[in-house]
């Protein structure tokens, strides 16, 4: 195609942020920090390599995802513990906060509730920023490795990808058959994963995660949560993400309860106030 005469002028038009966030409800991070200082550990879950596990976090508690043995990324799903139809909405979270999350960002729920489910309160990889390739950590752009894309691209039947891991874990936790659990599995927060888009073709890329044992991502539960975390079969995702040969390691999830009275004045966020009339 021949470029029009005003091609340069069209490209030079400055961008407009789709969703300015100046009016977003702000988390009281100072309150959360004080509450965290008083919190005691109430439980933990080890997520085995190439598998997933579930965990529950009451509203007003904290949970931490940690690297414990070696570089490892994890795929995180969150649901309202009392209603699986309210689940993490990665697309809207991306639209509000950007492609990668860090401390101060929130994980938002699906329509029609659209409210904060969890707030990230601490990120030991916050120093990474954005590298020379445009890569950063904790993305909400990847969908999770899955058996359907694997079959589409290479004809494989691989069952320890994150989608299948999360499906099995949710089925085991809820008692649902696999066929009913699977539709509740959704796009993830890629914890510790280092990703971006190539500048020339715009393709989603991954590279070796900078996570090391002792690094963690910590959250405040804004509502009662059911979580599922898959320790990705790609390990640190330095070469591939559905693999029986990549070095993989477990991940640790810990839950912490603040001392009584530490959150005085805090209440879980209400569901979204839109009247749902849709113009009728």
Description of the structure:
The protein is of the alpha+beta class. The protein has one domain. The chain is 17% helix and 29% strand. The protein is built from six helices and 13 strands. It has helices at 7-11, 29-37, 90-97, 147-154, 162-174, 178-181; strands spanning 40-47, 52-57, 62-67, 74-80, 83-87, 106-108, 116-123, 136-139, 189-197, 204-207, 216-221, 225-231, 251-257. Strands 2, 4, 5, 8, 9, 10 and 12 form a seven-stranded antiparallel sheet that branches. A six-stranded antiparallel sheet has the order 1-13-3-11-7-6. It is globular. The protein starts with 6 loop residues before the first helix and ends in a 23-residue tail after the last strand. 40% of the residues are buried. The mean pLDDT is 96. InterPro entries: DUF1989. Residues 46-226 form the DUF1989 domain. Pfam families: DUF1989 (PF09347). It comes from Lutimaribacter pacificus.
Number of domains: 1
- Oligomeric organization of the protein chains: single chain
Spans with pLDDT under 50 lasting ≥5 residues? Answer: none
For the record, give the distance between the C-alpha atoms at the N and C termini, rounded to a whole number.
45 Å
**What is the overall pLDDT average?**
96
**Radius of gyration computed on alpha carbons:** 20 Å
Return the structural class: alpha+beta
Gross geometry: globular
Fraction of residues in helix? 10-25%
What count of helical segments does DSSP give?
6
Secondary-structure element series = HHEEEEEHEEEHHHEEEEE
* Main beta sheet: 7 strands, antiparallel
Strand content: 25-35%
User: How many beta-strand runs?
Assistant: 13
Organism: Lutimaribacter pacificus
Pfam family, one: DUF1989
Protein name: DUF1989 domain-containing protein
InterPro entries: DUF1989
């Amino acid at each position: 195609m021949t470029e029009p005469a005003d091609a340069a002028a069209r490209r030079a038009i400055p961008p407009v942020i789709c969703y300015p966030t100046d009016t977003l409800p702000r988390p009281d991070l100072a309150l959360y920090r004080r509450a965290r200082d008083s919190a005691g550990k109430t439980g933990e879950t080890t997520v085995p390599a190439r598998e997933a596990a579930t965990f529950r976090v009451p509203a007003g508690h904290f949970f931490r995802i940690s690297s414990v043995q070696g570089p490892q990324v994890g795929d995180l799903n969150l649901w309202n513990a009392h209603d699986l139809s309210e689940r993490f909405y990665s697309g809207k979270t991306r639209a509000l906060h950007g492609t990668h999350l860090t401390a101060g960002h929130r994980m938002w729920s699906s329509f029609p509730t659209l409210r904060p489910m969890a707030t990230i309160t601490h990120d030991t990889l916050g120093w990474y920023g954005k590298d020379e390739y445009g890569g950063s950590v904790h993305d909400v752009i990847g969908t999770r490795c899955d058996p359907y894309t694997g079959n589409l691209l290479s004809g494989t039947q691989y069952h320890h990808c994150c989608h299948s891991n999360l499906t099995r874990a949710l089925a085991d936790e809820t008692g649902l058959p696999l066929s009913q659990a699977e539709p509740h599995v959704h796009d993830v927060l890629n914890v510790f994963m280092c990703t971006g888009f190539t500048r020339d073709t715009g393709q989603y890329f991954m590279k070796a995660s900078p996570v090391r044992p002792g690094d963690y991502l910590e959250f405040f539960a804004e509502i009662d949560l059911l979580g599922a975390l898959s320790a990705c079969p790609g390990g640190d995702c330095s070469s591939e993400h559905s693999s029986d040969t990549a070095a993989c390691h477990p991940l640790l999830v810990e839950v912490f309860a603040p001392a009584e009275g530490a959150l005085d004045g805090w209440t879980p966020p209400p569901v979204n106030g839109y009247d749902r009339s849709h113009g009728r």
